[in-house]
Amino acid sequence: MKLRKLSAAAAILASSALVLSGCTPGGDDDNGNGDANGAENGENGNGGNGEGGVQEGTGGEFDQEGALYSTLPDSGQKAEMPEDFETQEDTIIVSPGEAPFINVNNDYSGANSVSNAIVAGRMSSGFFYFGTDLSINPDEEFGSYEVVSEEDPFTVEYTINEEAVWSDGTPVTVRDYQIDWAAQAYAGTDEDEEPGAGFSPSGTSLAQYIPDGFQSEEPDAKTFTMELPEFYADWELLVGGPNVPAHIVAEQAGLSVEELDEAMDEGDLETLEPVAEVWNTGMGSEGDWDPDIALSSGPYQLAEWNWEGEETGGSVTLEPNPEWWGTPPGTANLVFDFLNEDTHVQALENLDVHIVEPQGDEDVKLGLDSLAESGDFVVHEGDVATWEHIDFQYQQGPFAETPELAEAFALCLPRQEIVDQLIAPVNPEAEVLNAREVLSFEDDYDEFVEEAYDGRYDEADVDAAAEIIEEHDAAGTTVEINHFGQPRRAAAVEIIDTYCGSEGAGFDIVDAGTPDFSAELLEGNWSGVAMFAWAGSGQVVSGQNIYSSDGAQNATGFSNDTVDEQWGVVADNVSDEERMQALIEIEQALWEDLHGIPLYVHPGIVAADASIANVRMTAAQTSVPWNAEQWQRAE
């Protein structure tokens, strides 16, 4: 599954990845926007009248050659649909991979993954969305926001559309944002150093940067302000859409909304304990849901949830939200089928599914390219802001007992061999990734790496690794490689075993891959190493949640004073040069103390039934369903 990395605003896991660390993406280039070739907007630009009401993409900067569009996209933003765009009685099935949808509340720590977010995102709306080029775009159908003061406190005013309601007709108000703030402000339990009410959010950025919560004239107001005592570089990402309907949470917890308001304002932990229980899993979790509780504020609502467990996936069916006030969704039935990625090519050929986004390997690419040659399918390829890495667990297991063994594992890790065997057949230009905060397709990557990394792990050194293992009498030490069970990661484990295992440096390498690793990962309930990816978008400070000592996504026990200090600089109102220098110092410290090892940027690949219009690949963590409400079969 993809793990989404929370910016200090919003992070995510990816089974293909976790959410991207805070890097500042560079400008668009030929492949960097996630749509394979891009679109030139000439005579056939917006609003054309192609056969069947659609146009064929020209292969310019923002559209895919041969793909169909209701409106030809001319930027990384969502294209504006024609005035006569209506919901079609049809079913479109997409498979994002095997990792399942777990929880209606996407901010719950056990569900914070790409696979969860792409479903939850279709049942919600908010003040902004990420474009295919990682741009941050206001969603004017939901509301508006503006900076009203750049002085202390930095203040932003938000206004929710008067027509915005939950799927039971209840207006979306500031109360729905305040409960997400409370979940972060009062997270934790009595056993924690700072007792909480039992909320388990995936991050605590709202509480950290907005210590007093949101300000409004009344709890059910449509207009509210956010006041930041200190500037925060990712302020625009702090407030998106509400995760849960506060009025339903209150009802399920046995409270009136007035009692909920008072408890949140006063930090009444005892009253908030039943609220936390509902907020965590009570909106709908692991296939257990009630349509009167699992409400939507987006174009689709939950219609069916075929839960087969975290190991076997299942499926989710969405239907149009009857209370949705915006542009109608394109198709009446949107199905997410969580299939093993090994089956994607055959399932697409059989039209058992209509859109797939597998981890690309050589066999997958060959299979999808063969389908595309028929003319019945379209394949999208491009750079995506998702990068693979290996993290060391320092809280328990071999690297907690003998931290020096992390150096041995890093030395024997065959990064170039992994890229050559598993990634280059899909992307011949692929290279080993040597940074976390700037990706290899970004303009300033080479200069950044030259300053931040000295090349010590460029080539596998089995002999040097074996010397460290022998020095610590650690031959045969078991190192579990935890991952989400995808074939490409399993193949990577085999390559690692050749170099680091019993016939190489001397570790006992164990493949511990399983599709249900997501909850264990963020909770830190694993030992050895974890191989996964962060999938990201336009964040600047998201890495703070992962690498800082008290970061909400620090699941490895890593701690470094320089890293903690410099993230404060990155988040501050500083120049680009100062921010980049701070990121370089962070990167240097992460290499020196071995938080983990970056491997490569994921090659993005999406394939779709050619008759479905408006399918657009994206570089962002939102994955190909980012605009699923616009998908529609051409007639």
What does this 3D model show about the protein?
The protein has 635 residues and is α+β, with helices and mostly antiparallel strands. The protein has 3 domains: 63-83 and 90-105 and 298-383 and 603-633, Periplasmic binding protein-like II (D-Maltodextrin-Binding Protein, domain 2, 3-Layer(aba) Sandwich), CATH 3.40.190; 126-282, Dipeptide-binding Protein, domain 1 (Alpha-Beta Complex); 386-602, Roll (Dipeptide-binding Protein, domain 3). Helices cover 26% and strands 19% of the residues. The protein contains 18 helices and 21 strands. The protein has helices at 114-120, 174-185, 205-209, 246-252, 257-266, 269-282, 344-349, 362-373, 398-401, 404-412, 415-423, 445-452, 462-471, 487-500, 517-523, 544-547, 561-571, 576-592, and strands at 2-6, 11-15, 55-56, 68-69, 88-95, 128-130, 136-138, 143-149, 154-160, 223-228, 300-307, 314-320, 331-338, 355-356, 377-392, 478-482, 508-511, 529-535, 596-609, 612-613, 632-633. It starts with a strand and ends with a strand. The model is unreliable at 1-51 (pLDDT under 50). InterPro entries: SBP_5, SBP_5_dom. GO terms for molecular function: peptide transmembrane transporter activity. Residues 150-477 form the Solute-binding protein family domain.
